[in-house]
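Researcher: Structure for this, please.
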Amino acid sequence: MTTMQFYLDDVWTKVKTYIQENSSLEPVIYKTYIEMDTRLGSISDTSATVVVSSFLQKVIIQDQIEFLNTAINDVLGREGINTKVMDENEFAKKPSFSPDPVQEINNNIKKFSNDRISPNQTFNNFVVGPSNKESHSAALGCAYRPGQFYTPLFIYGNSGLGKTHLLNAIGNYIKDNNQDARVYYTSSSDFVRDVANSIQNREIEEFKERMYNLDVLLIDDIQFLAGKEKSHEIFFHIFNELIYNRKQIVITSDRLPTEIKGLEDRLISRFSSGLSVGVDSPEFETSLAILKMKIENRSVDSDIFDEEVLHYVASNFSKDVRMLEGALNRLLFYSIQFSDNGQHIGIETAMSAFKTTKGESISTTELTTKTIKRIVADYYGLTQAQLISKSRTKAISNARHIAIYLSRKHLDLPYNKIGEDFGKRDHSTIISAYDKIDKKLKTDALLAKAIFEIEAEFK
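Model: Predicted structure, token format:
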């Protein structure tokens, strides 16, 4: 089989899959007149020829010519290709010469000048704990066998928990083990900017071809793609092309696909078709290990810290990795500038470092679902166990709904995470509870007063 024929057969296979998944044709019509005894005879920048074996096939496919044009253009990521339908005799009389599109593509493909992968973020310096064990395992599996296990892999969690580190670790692992692999990291904001620049410079087709030829696409903070219609369209075609060819896609977000407002349903559906794994705030042991690694990476002698100091920082600044690093920066800065003995950092130095200029301690108790449950339970004279129980009595149910509403409002956690913290409830139950309180607040003055008084306890 020639390169040209291989290319035509591959394109036609993709087009048939597209038709089967997206057209309104009855399955029996598709199987009888499109799936069998049809082929793509030729293609160029402006036209394509579908070859059929019978007159009836020609008539039926001709009736679907507009959709067929859409299918071919979408599969190839192009615009302006018009399709003709011919039987074998007509096609045999057609001039045989047409440029080889495979060669044209190969001639025009340009690699990205920079894969944007940070060389400093690897699996070797990623601290694994219960909060991120699942996401680490899935990421490593994708790196070990790109496109074979989980594609797309969707990693979600709040900012600063290591999602970007995992993306770069995947990229570095693949590059180290396969120098020919085409790996590319981008944030969704950079992707939107690249699409806009490519359109402005009339290079959008070249941009799409470069993306189509990737082996691994790592895209960070996909939530920022929401509302960008043109970028949605471009990314949709890139996503489909890579998935169809069993390439690896890894996506991160601050929440599950179904919770990203402004994202097209077809993208949500495709993101949800792979594996979704969450990353939570690090528990004490993981925070302590991360803190020690940060100290080691700075070439600072860990012996200058009292163990009590490290425990204090790991306990009070463990909401995310960035907070831990900020606390370490503050501590090192203070010990150098203001401590009498910069070679030793004890608990008194640490307590002084984390005070404001007014002498008041910086709040290190971060608001959590546990705190919210305690405050709400106390307000209504309930226990926390009652709050997360299966009881549906009006008093308990109302307090539970308020606690769920406040958890979503103040912590902006994914619904499924809130559900886990409220008795392992389904995310749809959490959404319903939030919406119920949100709606009642507009008309219920007593509810508004209660929530105001409860929120005052957060400060």
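Researcher: Any notable elements?
Model: Residues 3-22 form the longest helix (20 residues). Residues 147 and 248 are 4 Å apart (CA to CA).
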